[in-house]
Structure formats: structure tokens, C-alpha cells
Design a protein that fits this description.
The complex is a heterodimer of chains A (160) and B (660).
Chain A: H1 2-11, H2 31-43, H3 60-74, H4 79-90, H5 105-141, H6 145-159
Helix pairs in contact in A: 2-3
Chain B: H1 2-30, H2 33-36, H3 39-62, H4 69-74, H5 81-86, H6 92-113, H7 119-143, H8 167-196, H9 201-232, H10 243-268, H11 272-294, H12 308-332, H13 347-379, H14 387-404, H15 407-410, H16 418-424, H17 426-443, H18 449-472, H19 479-488, H20 491-516, E1 518-524, E2 529-532, E3 535-546, E4 551-561, E5 564-569, E6 572-576, E7 581-585, E8 587-591, E9 594-603, E10 609-616, H21 620-638, H22 653-656
Antiparallel strand pairs in B: 1-10, 2-3, 3-4, 4-5, 4-6, 6-7, 8-9, 9-10
Helix pairs in contact in B: 1-3, 1-7, 3-6, 6-7, 6-8, 7-8, 7-12, 8-9, 8-11, 9-10, 9-21, 10-11, 10-13, 11-12, 13-14, 17-18, 18-20, 20-21
Classes of the chains: A mainly alpha (160), B alpha+beta (660).
């Protein structure tokens, strides 16, 4: 989280820039462009931090990336173009939401797969279960030979 | 001497744990009551010896005995006493000692309060519980001994990481561990049942209070950690989907599912095998969490250990217990007798649906947390799985669960009437529709999702209250009658209502904070002002202060609303010379359930100060909701039917429930 980068920054004696995640000097004057920059920043990882977006990070690298994103947006690039540029430069690691591809298929499909498999499991088990308990009930209603003998005994006594 | 004393006590505890893990189990197999009876006193003695070891380490910290490596590395003589105490578990070795202390505490509690458990079950439970203790005490003694000495002791310690010197973090780990480790009891019960090959509804009644207790602590611990992150990290985030957070969230999801499935098992004698599996999974996830945090696999806030030998040792423990328990499960589960007929539209059907979604959500977090690690290990490819992924996958799984939630308690056992329940929820749905309309009118455009999310939160809250309102006849009969009926309702009904209502409150807080937060970033010089919503903050100036072990630069702000004085806010930056590090102390001002949040950057050479100001609407509801959930748990726990160790249902339930 935030302080880890702070600690890293202090240790590397690189604490020259203001240690606020998004500095006032970085904010763009165009609010629409700034909003796009913010939402893009939240999707991009500060690579020297643990699980932290460049929007939240104090690290100098995150600051550089934030400025880079804003520069490219100002140059008229689309969100996708900016992302493509960063992935080309830093690899998939920079994305906090991995792209869907063969090596992330398992990751993206897991939630739906677990839910589906679970639902099928419940249905199958419920069906099998009902069948077996119906059989058990039928079984229970059938008399054993001993019980049948006892019943006919009782009936015979009743007749007498 | 004190450190050696503690070390020796820990070795004795290991010996006792070995006895407790073996003798009672032999007794249970040979049906020898004397051998089985060994379990109880040994469990209590084991707890006492681990407590002595823990007390010894605490003494070393209090007396700042820097001849002990652990104290030298994590303490400082100038540190306030509370952080000397919390420093005991603010490091790897000490926190593992706290882990086994709580593990043995739960064992001792079962020994003391489990008087009415069948002897065989009790012996097996305590033996399994102790086998976990053997593994972890051995782990401490072999790889993470907190009692090691330095031959030539230094004069001063290196101090605790300043970020951990905070009251929130003083109580967060014990709460979390009480939850984490508390799940070991349900695990031990599950394994004991598998060893015995027998399980019935009474088993569920014994397990539920322990699970509930662990769940309450886990809920509090997670909420506490979240609030700590919120006010410490300086930009107001309260949940990061960090692997360490996920490590505690996964057991919470599993424990929540377990609480609900144990309910089915207790009432309907069904879902036995599934409940056993959930009990195993919940604690396995705790172990995986311990592994993730303690092995240094992830280098993050809570990870203090980086030595790979520890990682390998914990991994071995993990494989032994998870693999062993699942193997035992595969062998024995088919022997367990299932019972109870099942209709899809019924209370138990709703609880199965709950389990399905909770387990899927848990699996999502699990895959998301471990996938990057696995991918890197297998292919050397590095990817990141962060908050955007979890938000995109977790929400679609939780929304159906929240929609279905109010139906559950209103459906009858065995055969429910879905249409009837839907009619009874019309009131709740009406409240939700009003909320949607009001928010929509207020927002006047904006994303459509927001009014509907708020509506969902109100629906969840109103839906939770529906059962109580109906059973007391609140809107139909005089208030006194309703009040008398409310008092007569079983506490577990109140518990469910509170817990579900609390979730609605948390949801409202989450939506409010994420959708309506305002942010101002500025560079201010003394005398300048900034405003947010209807508040004006005037920057009066900075002062420097000397704390016990830090120097502080505090900025003074006067807050006014429409020109009226509201209060002052004093955010600060602290620098700790002992470690050469700095922390940001945010200033919070609570207004109803909302907060003003102010944090500082570094001062610029021209005398101006970088400042971040937030208005966080409804943010306190996030944690307030968690507290309400815990109150629900406590109410449920106090229900006589579930009272810890209660062997039988309440004598007369008819007398307790109101005439309808």
C-alpha cells in the first residue's frame, strides 16, 4: 500500500518530489481530460509498489507514469491507445485488470465456472437425493417377512 | 532469565501438545475413558504454558531487554507502553506466538466448557486441535524463535515500524487471530466427526456457537483493519483487494457460508457432508492466509518474514493439514448418513443458494489472489490482479445474493411459498423504490447504477426487518403488545435480523463513499482557504511538536460551514529518527455518518503545503454496519438454543415464540 512506496522512496533518498499521491501540479486544466486520466490511473499498476495503482502511489515512478498518461491524453490519444502504449513499454504487469487471453482465461472464467459447476452439482445431487429418499420411503413401507407374519398373527387373533 | 523461562515454557507446551494429540485419540479408539480424559487437563495446561511463554516475551518488551533479538529489532526504549505491548505481535515471531496462544486458548475453552460433549467426540476434537498446536509450536521453536539472545546486547533497539505504532494496529491482529484461529475449532470438530464416522444434528449445534464466535471476531478484525487503512494511508481508501486483506476475507466468506449450512444441518439433518467440507475449507483458508502473510510470498504491509525456510515449513504444515483433512474427508464422507428430504423452494433451499454464491465469491477471491503467483511460478509471466478485477467479478456474484437474502428467513422450512414471501416483501420493495426515486431526483442524471444500488441497500435493510415487523405485528397491534412480542422472540431471530440489516448498512456506506466522495487537491500557504461541499477550511499555519519518539509537523486548519465555526483539523507528518521514516497522520472530522478527511504532503520550499481534502459521505456506515453484524452474532450466540456447549434445544420453544 501507500506507505510501502513511501518507505521505499525514503530509503532510496528519492524523496524530493511532494509525497502526495496526486500532486496539485499534475492536475490537468480540462476537467473531462483529467477525469479520463484519473480513471485510467486507477487501472494502472505502480510497478515498484505492492498492488497499488499509480493513482494512489507516492513513488516517483508512479508520478512519472501519471504525467505520461496525461501527456498522451493531451496529445489526443484514446484511452485504449494509452493503455496499448504502456503495455508495449512495460508489459501486461502494468494492468491491474489483466486482459482476457489464453493465459488469463482460467482467471476470468473461474467465478462463472465455479458458480455453474456448483449449481449443476446442487441440481444433480438434489435429484439423486430425492430418488434415493423416495426409494428409502418405499422400502420402509414394505414389510419384512417377520413383520408380515406378526401382522397376520395379529389379524388372526382379531378374528377370533 | 525471563527469555529462557519463556523458551522453556514453550518447549514444555510442545511436549504437552504431543501428549494431547496422541493419548486421547488412542483412548477414543480403544474406548478407554481414562486415556480420553487426559485431553481436558492437558489442553488447559498447554494453554497455561503458552501463556507463560507469551507473558515472558511481553515482559522482555516492557523492560526493553535489548539482549533479546526480537525486542532489539522491534522495540525502542522511548516507545509508549501501549506500543511496547503491541510490538510483541507487531513482528513475525511474536505474532506466531500470539497465533498459538489463541489456538491453545480455544482448545482450553472447549476443555472447560465442553462438559456435555460426548467423551469420544471431546477427546478427538482436543487431539486434533492439539496436532495443529504441535505443528505451529514446532514451527516457532525451529524457525521463528522469539527468545533468541544477542551475545553483546546493544543499548538501544531499532524501534517498531512507525506505521504499526497506532492504536488501531494494536488491537487489529489479536481480533483477526481470534477469528482466524477460532475457525480451528470447527475444523477439529469436523475431523473428529470424520474419524468417528458419525455425525448428527447435535454436532451442528455444538459447532455453530464456536463458528459464530470466530466469525464475530473475524468480522471485527477485518473492519478494524479496514478502518486503520482508511485513516493511516492518507488518501481514504478502505479496501484494496490486497492479498493480505483477501487472506482474511476468504475465511470470512467460508465461515459465513458455514454458519448458514450448519443451520440447515441442525434443523433439517441435511447438508452434513457439505457442512463438514466447509468447516475444513474455512480453516484451510485461514492456514493459506497464514502462509501467504507469514511466508513472505507476498511482500506487503503485513509480511514481515522473508526467510524462505519459514515459507517451506509453513507450506509443509499447510499440505499436511489441508491434504490430510481432505484425504480423510474423501475416505470417510461416503460413510456419513444423509437425511432429510429437500424441496428447492424452502428455507433450506435458500440457504443452499446462499452457500452457492458465497462459495463462488470465495473462489473468485481465491483464484484472483493466487493466480498471479501460480502463473509466475509456472510460466515466469508476470501479471497483476488488482482492485479493478475484483470489483468486476465480485459484485456480479454478490448482487443476486443480496436480492435473495431477505427471502431466506421468510421462507418456511421444508416447503416454502415463494409467491407468499414475495408478497410479504412488497413493503421492503416499496421502500427501495422510494429510495431509488428520491436518489434519482436528487442526482438529476448521473449514472443510473447509483440510485439502484442505494435502492438495493434499502431493500436489504427493510427486508431484514420484515420478519421482525411481521412477527411482532408492529404496524397492526398497539405498540406495547408489539414490544412484548419482540421481547419474546428468540434471540437467534434477532441475531439474523441484525446481521442482515448490518450488511445493508455496510452496503449503503460503500455506495455512498465510492459514488459521492469529493476530492480537492491544492497547494496552500498559511492564510489561504479551500472549500469542499459546504465547508470552508482556512489554513492558519504550521507548528512543530516533539512526541515521545517522533517529531511532528502539524498544520492547523479552521473549519467553517456557511461562515459558522465547526471545529479545527490538525493533520500532521511525523518523522521517526530511530528508523528514519515518516508517517502521515490524517485529520478526520465526523459529521453525522460522513467525514471530512484531510492529509498532508511535504512542505514546498516556498512555504506552501500540498494538501488533500476529501468529503466522504456515509463512510462511517461501512464499519458501523460491521459492528451491527457482530451485535447480531452476539445476540444469536446468547440464544439459549445455541449457548456454548448446550446439548439440547430450549426446553419449550412454544412458550418463547409469540402467538400469531
Amino acid at each position: 500500500m501507500k506507505w510501502r512506496c513511501l518507505v521505499a522512496a525514503v530509503l532510496s533518498l528519492a524523496i524530493l518530489s511532494p509525497a502526495v499521491a496526486l500532486g496539485p501540479d499534475e492536475v490537468l486544466s480540462d476537467p473531462a481530460l483529467e477525469a479520463r486520466a484519473r480513471s485510467l490511473s486507477k487501472e494502472l499498476r505502480c510497478m515498484v509498489c505492492q498492488n497499488q495503482s499509480i493513482d494512489d502511489s507516492d513513488a516517483p515512478l508512479a508520478r512519472d507514469l501519471r504525467i505520461l498518461v496525461r501527456e498522451r491524453l493531451q496529445a489526443g490519444e484514446s484511452d485504449q491507445q494509452v493503455i496499448n502504449f504502456l503495455v508495449a513499454r512495460y508489459g501486461e504487469f502494468v494492468l491491474l485488470r489483466p486482459r482476457f487471453s489464453w493465459h488469463t482465461a482460467l482467471l476470468w472464467l473461474a467465478p462463472a465456472a465455479v458458480l455453474l459447476i456448483g449449481a449443476c452439482g446442487v441440481l444433480v445431487l438434489a435429484r439423486r437425493y430425492r430418488a434415493s429418499s423416495e426409494r428409502a420411503t418405499a422400502e420402509r413401507e414394505k414389510l419384512t417377512p417377520a413383520e408380515a407374519a406378526r401382522l397376520s398373527e395379529i389379524l388372526r387373533q382379531g378374528e377370533q | 532469565m525471563i527469555a529462557e523461562f519463556g523458551h522453556y515454557a514453550l518447549v514444555l507446551a510442545l511436549a504437552l501438545a504431543l501428549v494431547q494429540a496422541s493419548v486421547p485419540m488412542v483412548g477414543a479408539r480403544t474406548n478407554d475413558p481414562v486415556l480420553m480424559a487426559v485431553a481436558g487437563p492437558t489442553a488447559v495446561a498447554q494453554f497455561c504454558f503458552i501463556a507463560i511463554a507469551f507473558a515472558a516475551l511481553t515482559m522482555c518488551y516492557v523492560r526493553s531487554d535489548f539482549s533479546v533479538v526480537n525486542v532489539f529489532e522491534n522495540s525502542h526504549s522511548a516507545k509508549p507502553l501501549i506500543y511496547k505491548l503491541s510490538g510483541v505481535w507487531g513482528n513475525h515471531e511474536g505474532s506466531m506466538l500470539l497465533w498459538v496462544l489463541i489456538l491453545s486458548l480455544f482448545g482450553a475453552l472447549v476443555a472447560l466448557f465442553g462438559g456435555n460433549l460426548p467423551a469420544r467426540l471431546k477427546a478427538n476434537v482436543l487431539a486434533v486441535q492439539s496436532s495443529i498446536a504441535v505443528a505451529f509450536v514446532l514451527f516457532i521453536l525451529v524457525t521463528s524463535n522469539p527468545f533468541l539472545r544477542i551475545p553483546e546486547p546493544p543499548l538501544e533497539g531499532r524501534d517498531l515500524n512507525p506505521i504499526l505504532q497506532d492504536p488501531g494496529l494494536a488491537i487489529h491482529p489479536p481480533l483477526l487471530y481470534l477469528g482466524y484461529v477460532g475457525l480451528s475449532i470447527s475444523f477439529s470438530f469436523a475431523i473428529a466427526a470424520l474419524i468417528d464416522g458419525r455425525i448428527d444434528a447435535a454436532w451442528a449445534r455444538w459447532v455453530r456457537p464456536w463458528t459464530l464466535l470466530a466469525w464475530m471476531f473475524l468480522t471485527l478484525g477485518i473492519a478494524m483493519g479496514s478502518y486503520w487503512a482508511y485513516y493511516t494511508l492518507g488518501w481514504g481508501g478502505w479496501w484494496f483487494w490486497d492479498p493480505v486483506e483477501n487472506a482474511s476475507f476468504m475465511p470470512w466468506l467460508a465461515a459465513t457460508a458455514l454458519l448458514h449450512s450448519a443451520l440447515v444441518m441442525e434443523k433439517r439433518d441435511a447438508l452434513k457432508v457439505w457442512t463438514i467440507l466447509l468447516a475444513i475449507l474455512a480453516f484451510s483458508l485461514s492456514l493459506i492466509g497464514t502462509f501467504l502473510v507469514r511466508s513472505g510470498v507476498l511482500t506487503s504491509v503485513h509480511a514481515f518474514a522473508t526467510d524462505p525456510t519459514r515459507g517451506v515449513f509453513i507450506l509443509a504444515i499447510l499440505l499436511l493439514f489441508i491434504g490430510g483433512s481432505l484425504a480423510l474427508f474423501a475416505l470417510r464422507a461416503p460413510l456419513l448418513k444423509q437425511g432429510g428430504l429437500f424441496a428447492p423452494i424452502s428455507r433450506e433451499g435458500a440457504l443452499v443458494l446462499n452457500n452457492l454464491f458465497l462459495v463462488s465469491a470465495c473462489a473468485t477471491v481465491f483464484v484472483g489472489t493466487l493466480y498471479p503467483l501460480a502463473l509466475e511460478a509456472l510460466t515466469d509471466e508476470k501479471i497483476s490482479v488488482g482492485a479493478p478485477f475484483f470489483n468486476a467479478t465480485f459484485a456480479p456474484l454478490f448482487v443476486p445474493l443480496l436480492i435473495a437474502m431477505p427471502f431466506g428467513p421468510l421462507l418456511a422450512w421444508k416447503r416454502g411459498d415463494l409467491l407468499g414471501v414475495a408478497q410479504r416483501l412488497v413493503g421492503a420493495a416499496g421502500i427501495a423504490v422510494i429510495a431509488v426515486a428520491v436518489i434519482f431526483a436528487m442526482e438529476g442524471g448521473g449514472p443510473l447504477l447509483v440510485p439502484f444500488a442505494i435502492g438495493l441497500a434499502f431493500y436489504v435493510m427493510a427486508g431484514a426487518l420484515t420478519e421482525i415487523v411481521e412477527r411482532t405485528g408492529l404496524l397492526r397491534v398497539p405498540f406495547e403488545t408489539a414490544f412484548a412480542r419482540a421481547r419474546g422472540l428468540p434471540r437467534s431471530a434477532w441475531g439474523a435480523t441484525f446481521a442482515h440489516f448490518g450488511l445493508g448498512i455496510t452496503l449503503l456506506g460503500i455506495i455512498g463513499e465510492t459514488q459521492w466522495s469529493l476530492e480537492r487537491i491544492a497547494e496552500l500557504k498559511p492564510g489561504q482557504s479551500m472549500s469542499i461541499r459546504r465547508y470552508d477550511l482556512h489554513f492558519d499555519g504550521v507548528t512543530t511538536r516533539q512526541g515521545p519518539n517522533y517529531r511532528e509537523l502539524a498544520a492547523h486548519f479552521t473549519v467553517r460551514r456557511h461562515g459558522d465555526f465547526v471545529g479545527v483539523m490538525e493533520p500532521a507528518k511525523r518523522s521517526f529518527p530511530s528508523r528514519g521514516t515518516a508517517t502521515t497522520e490524517t485529520a478526520l472530522m465526523t459529521r453525522g455518518f460522513s467525514q471530512l478527511y484531510l492529509s498532508l504532503g511535504d512542505p514546498n520550499p516556498d512555504g506552501s503545503l500540498a494538501v488533500r481534502l476529501y468529503y466522504k459521505p456515509l463512510v462511517l456506515l461501512i464499519w458501523f454496519g460491521a459492528v451491527v453484524m457482530v451485535i447480531g452474532g452476539a445476540l444469536s450466540l446468547s440464544d439459549r438454543r445455541l449457548r456454548v456447549g448446550a446439548p439440547k434445544p430450549a426446553r419449550s420453544k412454544a412458550a418463547l415464540s409469540p402467538a400469531e
